User: Which sequence fits this backbone?
């Protein structure tokens, strides 16, 4: 994982940030809300410009929504049987496909068999409170939200060789015992008797829960040694030895990710699944603004003409060609590079080729008993971490105290995702069960967590997606050139690229919506169509995986 050490953006880069953030706030933090497009001039009746939107992901749907309500005639071409792109929620009966790796043909990997009413978010799973665009669109579209729990002190960490299988460390023990030990070490170095030293010593006592001598012997912050009853006074659990904490290297496994700004509480999720956003956007643009959304329409070529854009696509066994005044591509770059592109600049072609998409896998389980909420576990939401290839394990932030539920049994990146993606689906589930059993013994009981109710997805093998997000690296000089190029239109302002792939928030829906608003503003003439001379490239690893 790279270290986030990017220098402060230049003045020109800052101007781009403000532009992309909807003219309403700093882009780098994801703040800002939708610009007032309603104040923009509307097309003359009978002369409304036509727009082809390629790809019905969140960025494409947002683009169609903003342009259509200004009077532009929008058509969306989507190769899959559904809208949403990587915003996908699995429910009973849903069929999942991946490329077979040989003839690159789609093959059925799962038919989701969850109980009716259960679901699992295979793509985006949470919305930070500072992603104001997503929250604003949810409000506008009537999508109800509920809290998403990023962390609880009951979540666990498993490290092979340090925490025995079935006996992982609790989050609260790691956090508070580490604080206590470090506070005691620092307190022991204080020798002065002045007021400042006294105040610092007092701070360390509170910070680490030290005794009056500045020593750490454990804290009830880490939990109780025994469950309370009417005769039992709260006693702290014995502290984890500092040497064991250090040897475990727990901090290298995203233990402090919830402290990063992107994951700080409070976070949200749509009630009933993340795809509620997609359904609401699709419904609004088709029913209220008469946008045509053509599914199973696979684009094969894009031709920039003197007066517009010509797009050829396959649908229903036929090859059709359509034209428009503007074209906005939400096609993932690994897919776009496979198309026939005519009339595009060399710089644009190079930009499309320059960046790969990151591999990432998820696994979902249905549990027939919410064992994580029982007296033994007492976990209500949050994430547990492990050095097993599954990397992390999510607990649901909804339907507490009900009978059944779904769990995210793996969410990984890099080499772990590459390896898992190469496995047959049944082998992925076996690997994920092994990792889950290191933290929860209930995974040894297939009646509690049935094998045939598991689902997996390797996003880098999903047709028409080919990855999780653009793997931008600010240290790569080719990425410096490519990222800037993608922020500028081709064909004299006729062709644009949108999506989180062309935003400072790769992998996030906020980035996709930010990009859509930026391109709409360019089309409307509210923003220049040339990017500043210097543009800061996002650090995809930092922004999607954290510390």
Assistant:
């Amino acid at each position: 994982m790279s270290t986030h050490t990017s220098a402060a953006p230049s003045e020109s880069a800052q101007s781009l940030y403000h532009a992309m953030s909807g003219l309403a706030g700093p882009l780098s933090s994801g703040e800002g809300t939708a610009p007032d497009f309603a104040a923009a001039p509307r097309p003359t009746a009978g002369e409304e410009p036509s727009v082809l939107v390629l790809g019905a992901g969140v960025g494409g749907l947002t683009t169609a929504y903003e342009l259509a309500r200004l009077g532009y005639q929008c058509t969306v071409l989507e190769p899959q049987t559904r809208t949403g792109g990587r915003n996908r929620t699995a429910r009973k009966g849903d069929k999942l496909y991946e490329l077979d790796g040989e003839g690159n043909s789609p093959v059925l990997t799962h038919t989701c068999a969850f109980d009716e009413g259960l679901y699992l978010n295979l793509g985006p799973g949470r919305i930070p409170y500072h992603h104001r665009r997503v929250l604003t669109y949810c409000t506008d579209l009537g999508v109800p939200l509920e809290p998403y729990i990023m962390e609880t002190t009951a979540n666990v960490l498993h490290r092979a060789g340090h925490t025995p299988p079935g006996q992982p460390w609790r989050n609260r023990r790691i956090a508070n015992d580490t604080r206590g030990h470090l506070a005691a070490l620092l307190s022991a170095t204080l020798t002065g008797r002045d007021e400042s030293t006294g105040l610092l010593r007092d701070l360390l006592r509170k910070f680490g829960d030290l005794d009056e001598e500045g020593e750490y012997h454990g804290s009830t912050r880490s939990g109780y040694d025994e469950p309370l009853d009417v005769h039992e006074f709260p006693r702290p659990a014995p502290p984890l030895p500092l040497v064991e904490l250090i040897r475990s290297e727990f901090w290298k496994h995203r233990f402090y990710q919830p402290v990063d700004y992107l994951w700080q509480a409070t976070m949200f999720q749509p009630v009933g699944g993340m795809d509620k956003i997609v359904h609401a956007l699709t419904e609004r643009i088709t029913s209220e603004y008469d946008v045509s959304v053509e599914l199973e329409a696979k684009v094969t070529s894009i031709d920039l003409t003197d007066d517009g854009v010509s797009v050829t696509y396959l649908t229903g066994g036929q090859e059709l060609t359509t034209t428009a005044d503007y074209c906005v591509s939400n096609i993932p770059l690994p897919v776009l590079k496979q198309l026939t592109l005519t009339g595009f600049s060399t710089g644009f072609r190079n930009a499309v080729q320059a960046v790969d998409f990151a591999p990432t896998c998820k696994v979902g389980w249905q549990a027939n008993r919410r064992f994580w909420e029982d007296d033994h576990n007492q976990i209500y939401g949050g994430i547990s971490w492990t050095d097993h290839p599954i990397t992390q394990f999510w607990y649901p932030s909804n339907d507490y105290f009900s009978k059944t539920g779904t769990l995210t049994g793996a969410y990984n990146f890099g080499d772990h995702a590459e390896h898992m993606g190469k496995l047959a689906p049944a082998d992925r589930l076996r690997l994920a069960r092994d990792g889950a059993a290191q933290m929860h013994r209930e995974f040894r009981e297939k009646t509690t967590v049935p094998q045939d109710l598991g689902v997996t997805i390797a996003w880098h093998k999903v047709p028409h997606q080919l990855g999780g997000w653009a793997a931008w690296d600010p240290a790569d000089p080719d990425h410096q050139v490519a990222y800037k190029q993608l922020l500028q239109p081709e064909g004299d302002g006729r062709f644009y690229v949108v999506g989180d792939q062309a935003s400072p928030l790769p992998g996030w829906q906020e980035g996709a919506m930010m990009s859509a608003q930026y391109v709409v503003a360019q089309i409307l003439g509210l923003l220049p169509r040339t990017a500043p001379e210097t543009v800061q490239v996002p650090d995809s690893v930092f922004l999607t995986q954290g510390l």
Notes: The radius of gyration is 26 Å.
